[in-house]
Amino acid sequence: MPSAEIRMKVLKVLDRGGQRVLVAFGWLLLWATRSGAASRCVDQPCSPPLGNLASGRELLTLSSCCVNNNSHQRLCSYPPHLCPDNTHPPSFMTDDPFLHPDTWWASGEDDVKQDEIRLNLETTFYLSHIVLVFRSPRPASMVIERSADFGKTWEALRIYAHNCRVEFDLDDDLNQPGSLCTSRYSNPRPCSGGEVILRTLDPSSARTFDPYSPEALVRLTVTNLRIRLLKAQTCPVSINYSAERTNPTDSLKSTPSVPYAIYTLQARGTCLCHGHAEYCIPYKDNEDKRQKSDMVFPKCQCVHHTEGDHCERCAPLYNDRPWRPANGSSGEPNPCSKCECHGHADSCHLSLRAWISSGGTSGGVCDNCKHNTEGRRCQRCRHGYHRRMLVPLRSPHACTRCWCDPRGALPPLPGEVGPWCHPKSGQCHCKSGVGGVSCSHCLSGFWGFGEDGCKPCVCPHSCDQTTGHCLKSFPNNYVVNVPIGGKIPDVDQMFTAEKEVSWSKELEVSASHNTGKCRCKEKSLRSITDLCRTKHDYVIKASVLSAHDKGSHAEVRVKVRKVFRSGQVRLHLGIISVYPLSWTSRGCTCPILNPGVKYLLAGSEEPGTGRLLVTLQSVVVPWTPRLSLLFSVGLMNGCL
Ligand SMILES: [Ca+2]
Predict the structure, then answer these.
(1) How far is the C-alpha of 272 from the C-alpha of 123, rounded, in Å?
(2) How far is the CA of 89 from the centre of ligand 1 (A)?
(3) CA of 50 to the centre of ligand 1 (A)
(4) Most exposed residue of 67, 221, 417, 567, measured as fewest CB within 10 angstroms of its CB?
(5) Separation of 315 CA from ligand 1 center, angstroms?
(6) Mind telling me which InterPro entries this protein's record contains (predicted)?
(7) Are residues 547 and 591 in the same domain?
(8) Rounded CA gap, 184 and 162, in Å?
(9) Domain count, the chain
(10) Ligand 1 geometric centre to CA of 69 (Å)
(11) Is 90 in the same domain as 161?
């Protein structure tokens, strides 16, 4: 057959094979042909274009050449220096059929009845179809096998036999559709240029089949291919065959002296990327792509925030949801999702617990929060640091070290690194009578700033902070500047709503101040009978003086005005402490105890310590003249 004719024949076969496969692999080609946009992967699954997996790779064959040379390998690639006479090496099967249409591989001499072609891939690839163009008559029986585990196990993809029943005891798929064996490609005619085509996917199922699904992986992936040429056949001598009649010299030329000769082997496929890549790339960046321009490289150039040779995992900072392959059926790209770490972490990991508890929306946990942050999303300042409120959380300078005056601040607890302050406000933990964000001065009503804090003024009103001498009148900023732990003077008339607003900033974490974090349900007291029904350990009338945030708990100082009932610990008029429990669990105090207000307080004692607790079951109602009257009645009835 003249070279031009062979060229036409090869092109025709490849073209035909391609068309058939276009149907079967519509999914791959669909993504591959949606070109024009910057990337085919935007908001959709994508796959690198198909290429010949055998191109640029060594094909091994079982051959008499190797046997004669006592090679240790069972299969060899006909190294030209070992086989100087060999003019038809296996590489001639994978050269460009358009540039070199008249090159072919020839198997060993006649005495070798069987041969094998092996393609070992360096990693897992998708295989879409195989096209073989024979120069010799096609084999009377042949098996194409694949391995997906680097040659440990093999599976027959297709069995070809002139007679399936005789050769393999299998049905012929021409009679029994779906059978593994077919006689479709085993006719010795045409004597040259006969094709064998294998599709890994049945065209009928290709339309609905998701190529990235787990079952697709099982069916379409390959690490090794082998083509076992089991039985050769010769070209039948027939003067009636039209092609030979028109060109009698053809039959002579097309029947080579060797059992098997192949012009072209195309193993069409692409790198395995789970729908998350548009290109296959070499393992090493510096590998010369131009020299191997027709090679299908093993690694994926991942998109959709995935990474790995096969885009099989999420990129370090994109583990907020589990990795998933794209869905070729629905068109969902299923990209990996970024963790919100506020710019303070380089990676995150998926916590299944967080993922499940979020109802499947977010499960990322930031790793190694930087810039003195902590928390699942690096959203808090770590121990010993606090937020700089004017700096955005995303800034590397969002958290700054607590600065606390060592004289006025309490020393850190054993085992703790100090100084410690409130992570939001920066408020340090002050000694008694000391105030200010960094515990740097005495509170109003206290004096003598030093190692032991500040001493209370022994005066009816207030005193000079340095000398302790009594002052005759209140300074102007008397109430406004009362911070955490501040003492509220025992004067109800000084308390106004306007001043409460001024406090709210200072007393952000005050135990006695509702910061808005808690919504306290106001309890009303309808009658004394209500009070009598519940057995409270203590019932007192008291005015709130001050609140102290003790970190783990809160202590509220009150002045007892009247004792209606007391429990184990006898109560007297004067200053005592009550302990709101909800501070520990909720960070605010319910019911609210506003400094400067008189209350009816009824509640329980803490067993053992005798501390007066204020809980959600306690009665806390502002004292009113009406309440006073109710109490007189209650006392008369003997309930209290
Ligand atoms: Ca060739």
Answers:
(1) 9
(2) 10
(3) 19
(4) 417
(5) 42
(6) Galactose-bd-like_sf, Laminin/Netrin_ECM, Laminin_N, LE_dom, Netrin_domain, Netrin_module_non-TIMP, TIMP-like_OB-fold
(7) yes
(8) 8
(9) 4
(10) 25
(11) yes
